[in-house]
UniProtKB/TrEMBL annotation, chain A:
<keyword id="KW-0687">Ribonucleoprotein</keyword>
<dbReference type="GO" id="GO:0006412">
    <property type="term" value="P:translation"/>
</dbReference>
<dbReference type="Pfam" id="PF03719">
    <property type="entry name" value="Ribosomal_S5_C"/>
</dbReference>
<dbReference type="GO" id="GO:0003729">
    <property type="term" value="F:mRNA binding"/>
</dbReference>
<dbReference type="InterPro" id="IPR005324">
    <property type="entry name" value="Ribosomal_uS5_C"/>
</dbReference>
<dbReference type="InterPro" id="IPR000851">
    <property type="entry name" value="Ribosomal_uS5"/>
</dbReference>
<feature type="region of interest" description="Disordered">
    <location>
        <begin position="1"/>
        <end position="47"/>
    </location>
</feature>
<dbReference type="InterPro" id="IPR013810">
    <property type="entry name" value="Ribosomal_uS5_N"/>
</dbReference>
<dbReference type="InterPro" id="IPR018192">
    <property type="entry name" value="Ribosomal_uS5_N_CS"/>
</dbReference>
Automatic annotation (TrEMBL), chain B:
<dbReference type="GO" id="GO:0005737">
    <property type="term" value="C:cytoplasm"/>
</dbReference>
<dbReference type="Pfam" id="PF04194">
    <property type="entry name" value="PDCD2_C"/>
</dbReference>
<protein>
    <recommendedName>
        <fullName>Programmed cell death protein 2 C-terminal domain-containing protein</fullName>
    </recommendedName>
</protein>
<feature type="domain" description="Programmed cell death protein 2 C-terminal">
    <location>
        <begin position="247"/>
        <end position="341"/>
    </location>
</feature>
<dbReference type="InterPro" id="IPR007320">
    <property type="entry name" value="PDCD2_C"/>
</dbReference>
<feature type="region of interest" description="Disordered">
    <location>
        <begin position="105"/>
        <end position="137"/>
    </location>
</feature>
<feature type="compositionally biased region" description="Basic and acidic residues">
    <location>
        <begin position="128"/>
        <end position="137"/>
    </location>
</feature>
């Protein structure tokens, strides 16, 4: 165990240097401890970002200001730099690096699987899983995948609507493999009542109080984490009475920022005021 | 599988978007540099098949094939500039212009312009140019190109005056048409123009294992996680990359792009294209010789981004409505000459062949 931990540390240290990635920047001093994750310090790389997709071009130009505009139209986000630009306070943390082995004729082939959770502790969270032959590559890839999968988390109240939302709006449950995780609204001050691993995800999501209950083989922590993440994704999928009003559709960013109708798109084009989604 | 892939990286912008270079230059946008003034191209080849507007040049790539011993070979990618046609695949056209192989005659034959072979340009694909140095090299060669142009123009003037003298002296004053350079056709819109320099793609699995000197903040964390050894992350197996919005093919595409984020096109004669989506159209066969088509080069999204940035502010601008991720060009695997003088390759005339292009779209739009 100890030597595996040591190897992990060595690889992680190397990963820091490796993040320079050809832009020539080695150790960047502005990164704090890994606990807090890496923040900021990426402006130079973002300036060099050449967007690939149309959505990326719109974000680069600054035509899209909030990530909620992307969530509203369920547009697929294909570039992680989009998320970096739109959600500035994103922190990341490596939850686990575990070796996975495959039996080949020439022995066993070991690869490393990294689980990374990113979040801004204020309603956005993402989870990334990546396997690679080296730990540094796995961590780097997992961070990118986590950013690509950032989702909004809906928070609500347990009782009186005083102050800011602090818990999940209703009972939701998520499933992955055999593990199901159920989240139940909790009164203020309860804290996150969950196992250590999903607690981390919930902290990154910005949920302050919640009761959880899990079922299934929670020993498979990979599935446990994914089940928690699935549960958080469902918070905005739950139809509550606030959403009973008729939806007023808005133009998608592609339609809004183009001069002419190039192609008929699938979305509706009724322009109206934006509907505010209250907690 | 290790084929070499050459990347076309952006070089300097042209001072004037309509400036002419020679047909050995690889560039994006601008005016197409045909090898001879009068190519004999049928006008409908240069027109959009949907709306009939004259096509404008997107990319001109000097692409000799060493294996088949063809040195004079250029590929032109053309598109209809109107915003409505741009996104449709039928408005894109690829022309392959090459001299019939076999003879290496001097070009002075039918060529009044006296276009000599240009200085060895930066665009020889097999060269491995160091990225840092290539800016300087490109600047120098760019000046040489301009110098060559100036020399050509001077030669033109000289030959024109000589011709007039000759025709006076000759007994039968045949009215020879003076082939001046055609005045720049200002009616066709022209895309912003910049030049390309080549670099070989060095793609390896990046395993940056640095020193363990910056271990300090990690030690604390490791002791923390050491306490939780009773958590066993059991039963983990290899998992393919998955993201909510992007599939595995696109993630691999993006990874290659991130290694060289400014690549405008990828060139690999006969190699495998880098796909952005798994659905690929069949390339078909060459319509002249029937041999199968093979992949040669593909245009990449950063090119679109650069054109878009350069054209910002101008209305009715074609590239603003393009949404493709990559454009894959397939050419005849034998690089055939569709026409030859009297059935035998003569080495004096230029052949124009139309090739196939497929678009891989960003389907989110």
């Amino acid at each position: 165990m100890a030597d595996r931990g040591g190897e992990r540390g060595g690889e992680r240290g190397g990963e820091r240097g490796g993040f320079g990635r050809g832009f020539g920047r080695g150790g960047r001093g502005d990164r704090g401890g890994r606990r807090g994750g890496r923040r900021g310090g990426r402006q130079q790389e973002e300036e060099k970002w050449v967007p690939v997709t149309k959505l990326g071009r719109l974000v680069r130009e600054g035509k899209i200001h909030k990530i909620e505009e992307i969530y509203l139209h369920s547009l697929p986000v294909k570039e992680h730099q989009i998320i970096e630009l739109l959600v500035p306070g994103l922190k990341d943390e490596v939850m686990k690096i575990t070796p996975v082995q495959k039996q080949t004729r020439a022995g066993q082939r070991t690869r490393f699987k990294a689980f990374v959770v990113v979040g801004d502790c204020d309603g956005h969270v993402g989870l990334g899983v990546k396997c690679a032959k080296e730990v540094a590559t796995a961590i780097r890839g997992a961070i990118i995948l986590a950013k690509l999968s950032v989702v909004p988390v809906r928070r609500g109240y347990w009782g009186n609507k005083i102050g800011q939302p602090h818990t999940v709006p209703c009972k939701v449950t998520g499933k992955c493999g055999s593990v199901t995780v159920r989240m139940v609204p909790a009164p203020r001050g309860s804290g996150i009542v969950a196992a250590r691993v999903p607690k981390k995800v919930l902290q990154f999501a910005g949920i302050e109080d919640v009761f959880t209950s899990s079922r299934g083989s929670t020993k498979t922590l990979g599935n446990f984490v994914k089940a928690t993440f699935d549960c958080l994704m469902k918070t905005y999928g739950f139809l509550t009475p606030e959403f009973w009003d008729e939806t007023r559709y808005v133009k998608t960013p592609f339609q809004e920022f183009t001069d002419l109708l190039a192609k008929p798109t699938k979305g509706l084009v009724i322009e109206a005021t934006v509907e505010t989604v209250e907690a | 599988m290790a084929e070499e892939v050459h990347l076309g990286l952006p070089g300097p912008w042209a001072a004037d978007y309509r400036e002419k270079a020679d047909h050995y230059t690889t560039k994006i946008g601008g005016v197409p540099d045909w090898p001879t003034g009068d190519m004999g191209i049928k006008p409908e080849m240069l027109q959009c098949s949907l709306c009939g507007t004259k096509l404008c040049l997107v990319a001109q790539v000097y692409a000799p094939v060493v294996k088949l011993n063809i040195e004079e070979r250029i590929i032109y990618v053309l598109v209809c500039p109107t915003p409505e046609c741009g996104p449709r695949p039928q408005s894109w056209k690829v022309l392959r212009v090459q001299k019939c192989r076999n003879v290496e005659q001097t070009e002075g034959d039918g060529d009044e312009l006296g276009q000599g072979t240009g200085p060895s340009s930066t665009s020889v694909p097999e060269e491995q140019i160091d990225k840092n140095k290539s800016h300087d090299i490109n600047d120098d060669d760019f000046d040489l190109d301009a110098l060559a142009e100036a020399l050509e123009q001077a030669a033109t003037l000289a030959s024109n005056s000589k011709k007039k003298n000759k025709s006076k002296c000759a007994n039968a004053p045949i009215e020879r048409p003076v082939l001046k350079e055609k005045p720049a056709d200002l009616s066709i819109p022209v895309l912003p123009c910049f030049y390309i320099y080549y670099d070989k793609e060095q793609y390896r699995v990046k395993g940056a294992v640095g020193s363990s000197s910056n271990e300090f903040p990690l030690d604390k964390e490791m002791t923390d996680t050491g306490n939780y050894e009773e958590e066993k992350w059991d039963g983990e197996k290899y998992e393919y990359d998955k993201a909510i919005g992007a599939d595995r093919t696109f993630l691999k595409f993006k990874k290659r792009l991130d290694a060289y984020p400014e690549q405008c096109f990828r060139y690999s004669y006969g190699g495998k294209p880098l796909l952005a989506a798994t659905k690929v159209q069949d390339a078909g066969t060459c319509r002249f010789c029937g041999s199968p088509r093979q992949y040669e080069l593909q245009l990449m999204s950063p090119l679109l981004y650069f054109l878009h940035e350069a054209g910002k502010g101008s209305s009715n601008y074609g590239p603003s409505n393009w949404t493709w991720l990559t454009l894959i060009v397939y050419t005849c695997s034998k690089s055939c000459c569709p026409s030859s003088c009297g059935g035998r390759p003569c080495g004096c005339c230029w052949d124009v062949a139309e090739e196939e292009i497929t678009i891989q779209e960003d389907e989110a739009v």
